[in-house]
Amino acid sequence: MSEGSVAPSSGSGSQRRLALAGGVGTGIAALALYLATRARTVGWGDNGELAAAAWVLGIPHTPGYPLWTPLARLFALLPLGEPAARLALFSCVCGALCCGLLAFMVGRISGNAWAGVVGGALLAAAPTFWDQATTVEVYPLAMLLLVVLWGLAWRTGSGEGGRPVRGALPLFAFVYGLAAGSHMMLMTLAPAFLYLLWRRGALTRRALPSLAAFALGLSVFAYLPIRAAQNPPVNFGNPSTWPAFVAHVTGQASRLHMFEIPFPQMWQRVEGVSRLLVSDFTWLGLGLAAIGWLALIARDWTLWVFLSLVKLISLTVAANYNIIDNEVYLLPYYVAEGALAGFGAALLAEAAAKAGARVRARAGLSAGGAMVLLLAIPLMNAAANFGAMDKGGDYGAADFEAAALENAAPGAYLVTDLWLGGPLLYGRYVEKRRDDVAVVPLFSKARPWERFEALAQGTAFAGRPVYVGEQVTDCMRTVENLVCLAPAGPLQRAYWLRPDLRAGERKPKVAERFELAGGLRLRGLTGVRTSCAQGGTARVEVWWEVGPEFDFAEGRLRYALDAVDSGKRVWRGDATLAASATRGLLVDEQVIGPLTDALPGKYRAVAIANVPRPRVVGLPVVIEVTPRGGR
User: Fold this and answer.
1) Topology classification of domain 507-631
2) Cα 464 vs. chain centroid, distance in angstroms?
3) What is this structure's pTM?
């Protein structure tokens, strides 16, 4: 075996044609699979936000995706279903091309076209890759460009007769710069690509002009300030100035989530990644990739190091990036795993052919039988996961955005996290619902509650109605006594405290009175600690006063006791509250307890009044539980 090839390369046109046929067949099969299971409407989170940004040619969340957005806009112009379905088609095409090109690459390098088909099919049927390829996402394009870059880097030192292909290095540099506009994760793979280029003999003085081609590719980022200056409806980060542009492109809003995980927790994530790989590739697929990985050590050291670096970098990023959907940062790992599985299939086919020759069987028949068995791995994986991966009937996000926008008061602000904000942006700017409503999705997860004190003072929205989503609700409740929330369709409406009762301008005291919008008032204990022995009863007095516009006969008062540190709920109860016919005054003496299950420690009591209009969150009181017989 020569350096740079897993199998002896004949350089024949027939081998090239077979590898191409295998790649085309794999791509067509993957496309059929993805089209059958693709999303027909908007999804949650990034899906809706990216769809809205592509539709209006806006600026998505950091780092802006300036290559993906215009390309996706072209697919949005196709007259096929609703816009979200057209954009999902873009992901289907990119994902299928990625699998097909991977099959071609593996088939061409290994000299076995069917081995390439096995590797490409394993990648296509891996649920994490499959999921991204059937919805509105940036990752299928990024993974397609990853395989393109691998092919271009490989060709810098492997032309016919062993000479480098003319122009391959400048083309690689240009595409690499362009690929940064699809996803910045490709930039983290620079050590792997540099190693491959070095081993292929491309990094010489003659490579310096290729830096200009790289810079030319990076010019795609000029889209961000140019378009942001035009103030599009979706304009995350508004990168129209140099500082804002740098902050947006470098991911300032999310950088702090990288490498913030403690070392023991990081290893727990690695264990989770291991379970995910087994689920996505099956033990048989991983075993096939392991065979290919071991075979490359002896057969092609350059390719082994390159693919190992891709896997190592991808795993490191995914394990250390503290976000919910960090598994998508494993996708380069998946591409490398599919390639290794293909090389493993080539080795097994070669071994089967040799074994067949020893027993006087036809070598081609033996190798073909081995390939049929190996192809069964991705086929069974696809069949087992088809139902779970089918998004054709998922209209949850579409129903949510329609209901939320329909229930919003005129001129309202809808303040949510990006998970709920994505479909709301889609409904607002793609479906053209409710031109009077403003959607405010908060992208940064960096201590978002710190910004809510200003919002809860009611000054940020000029008195307009404000509705909040679940994650934002939790953040707002951390701003003590500043806001009360009432259900309003799938969101909650915020009722602000009077500006002169802001937290910074008052001191906690007993029976303090707080007035909210619409005549709703509450009085009670705030910042007070009370003590109770185990099994004893804690008593807290809170008065609820309701204005005439909140007319009701009676409601329910729920109260619960939560551990301050662990979040354990140790007690809950409720009582009936009756409204005075003349004064609309609710008076209740809350009894929290008996605390039979409470261990010694500090607990937070929270009371929630359930009335027809609205739901009101009561004031928190810290209760210290002492041992029996204690004070």
Assistant:
1) Immunoglobulin-like (2.60.40)
2) 31
3) 0.75
